[in-house]
Design brief:
The chain has 299 residues and is α/β, with parallel strands linked by helices. The chain contains nine helices and twelve strands. It folds into two domains: 143 residues, NAD(P)-binding Rossmann-like Domain (Rossmann fold, 3-Layer(aba) Sandwich), CATH 3.40.50.720; 140 residues, Dihydrodipicolinate Reductase, domain 2. Keywords: Aromatic hydrocarbons catabolism, NAD, Oxidoreductase.
């Protein structure tokens, strides 16, 4: 039997997200992690990547490029500011990039909503962890009835928020809010994030409020069905994504609460906020790989 050809991938960033991403990619039938690029020689992520057979670099992207590395696809799991620099280099080289920071240099991609719209785009933005978890709910409501305003509160364990996450908090609120408008379809979006220091650490929890005005019982039933359909779809690639209470309707607002439990590949299961980001990025990369490899096969 002929082995399936895979896209060769580089991961920029050897922190929590980059390392968790590596473990997920090692299981992928479509994308092979070959290189990990960091800036800290003592990084636990670089150490683990080397143990798994990846070629590693500890002085950043330029060092890897100068060494002749030219991946089919790159995952950037650094910070919004660092990605602005990386994007310029990768675009010049024509390397397709999946941006896991909130830098938003390319179009927003939410794996549950517009996965197939940007398969040929050179740089796509995975919004934020909160965006991957909550934008699909606003979209699910909006496909039944117009959403005037969507507000989300994402609560994550403080322990799951590493240096990169904390550096990106300002961009998180802006990018997540905008994604509820651009992809979710709300006329106005707003995002709030809370880092909860509770011990033991809590699971990622997201509350989504969608202002829809007074709607009848039939529309309420259609909204509930649309949300349940969306949750079931996301569970095909994020098994720990679930409603943690009934959907509520009060004063013209739909109130939805979501909990995300991670797979526990590298991170603890309570770090569902990071897990949904890496899982969504892998799903997008695999769709890009199927698309690109099919194109090559048909040429």
């Amino acid at each position: 039997m002929t082995a399936v050809k895979k896209l060769k991938a580089a991961i920029i960033g050897s922190g929590n997200i980059g390392t968790d991403l590596m473990y997920k990619l090692l299981r992928s039938p479509w994308v092979e992690p070959v290189w990990m690029i960091g800036i800290d020689p003592q990084s636990e992520g670089l150490k683990r990547a080397k143990e798994k057979g990846l070629e590693t670099f500890d002085q950043g992207l330029k060092q890897a490029i100068d060494a002749g590395v030219h991946p089919d696809i790159v995952f950037d799991s650094t910070s919004a500011k660092a990605h602005v620099r990386h994007a310029k280099i990768l675009q010049t080289l024509g390397i397709q990039t999946i941006d896991l920071t909130p830098a938003a240099r390319g179009p927003y991609v939410c794996a549950a909503v517009n996965l197939h719209e940007h398969l040929d785009t050179l740089n796509v933005n995975m919004i934020t962890c909160g965006g991957q978890a909550t934008v699909p709910i606003t979209y699910a409501v909006q496909r039944v009835t117009p959403v005037e305003y969507a507000e989300i509160v994402a609560t994550v364990s403080s322990k799951s928020a590493g240096p990169g996450t904390r550096q990106n908090i300002d961009e998180f609120t802006v990018t997540t809010a905008k994604a509820h408008e651009v992809i979710g379809g709300a006329k106005k979006g707003k995002a709030i994030i809370i880092l909860n220091p509770a011990e033991p650490p809590i699971m990622m929890r997201n509350t989504i409020y969608c202002q829809v005005g007074d709607v009848g019982k039939e529309t309420e039933a259609n909204i509930i069905k649309s949300i349940h359909d969306m949750v079931s779809y996301i569970q095909t690639y994020v098994p720990g994504y679930r409603l943690n209470r009934d959907i509520l309707f009060r004063d013209g607002i739909v109130n939805v609460s979501i909990e995300v439990e991670g797979l526990g590949d590298f991170l603890p299961v309570y770090a569902g906020n990071l897990d949904i980001m890496t899982t969504a990025a892998v799903k997008v990369a695999e769709e890009m790989a199927k698309h690109r490899l099919a194109v090559v096969k048909n040429e």
